Amino acid sequence: MTVSRVLRNRGDVSEATREKVLQAAKQLGYVPNKIAGALASQRVNLVAVIIPSMSNLVFPEVMTGISRCLEQTELQPVVGLTDYLPEKEEKVLYEMLSWRPSGVIIAGLEHSDASRAMLRAAGIPVVEIMDTDGTPIDSMVGISHRRAGREIGQAILAAGHKRIGFLGSGVGLDHRARKRFEGFTEALAKGGVEIADQEFYSGGSALAKGREMTAAMMERTPDLDFLYYSNDLIGAGGLLWMIEKGYDVPGDVGMAGFNGVRLLSGLPRKLATIDSCRDEIGYRAAQIIADRLKDDGGPGQKVELTPTLDRGDTMRG
Q: Maximum Cα–Cα distance for the chain, whole Å?
């Protein structure tokens, strides 16, 4: 009975006895059967984390925030990937919910009807992350992407730029990129400026894509005075190409990306960007679930974080 109480982390057991039991379990390679416990409690100590991709530099930083929070609890994150595909999200969500996790953290506010029905019926905390431009099923933590798009558009206009090119992913499946684009074009329109050229790509972000897109755009529209990229990775590829070709950045052509990816801080010049608060988003989302399970918080929490513009070395002040 003492061993059972220690392994289930329940009951009044002295610290010395607890240490002896845990040490013996470690030496024997013993792993408790959590499924048996789940039959009684109707849930396991897992948090389903459903995100589009791990190859995108954004989401590993979100996972860092989630893990940093949950390591202080008995909860463990389990990750499912959707590739931005609604039908794949449905499948991943169905499989994960069948294990009766303690909570769900899922990227975005746009889901299929089937996915929304499953999330509503799950009876566990659900936190939608990365975006606040919409109505959540339960709770949400993120930034306003429309606001972020408007702010970079306003900053570009304030710096005196008029011939602006946009380079980004196809915005059909990536709803957050679409909202930033909408906010960006709205800000330009209010300033009496239209996008002079635009280039879209499909598939994952990469430095090579940024180089290719920038080369194509500058050949097609050589009088551009600013290039705005939907994410930092393709922006970094574009910046490297511009430096190699001898462009004066930001003297002749300004440049900016989005996300504030720290991995790119070693570039010859620091790309202007807006931080999307990824680590904090992950931490705050996991904290909502941990608090709810301790009855320290209620449903319907809405946390909107404020991203900041970093002009770096590629945007005039």
A: 78
